[in-house]
Design a protein that fits this description.
The protein has 71 residues and is an all-alpha fold. 63% of the residues lie in helices and 0% in strands.
Length: 71
Amino acid sequence: MTATTRFSIADLEAHLGPESTAMIARSLGVTTRTVWRWRSTGLTELQADRAAIAAGLHPGTVWDTWWAAAA
């Protein structure tokens, strides 16, 4: 993956269900400000990996492009 690859938090939010920003932040172990920033800029590869794992998911399950970006 390149340094410019960004992943949408909307895909992760779809797996988490209808939760508030505060609940999403708490479940991922980040601040609400971080969740809002990710909504604006997307997640880096490392952030996406850590967020998915914190949610109990594999990033490839959350983002369809995960494997294509790795190639």
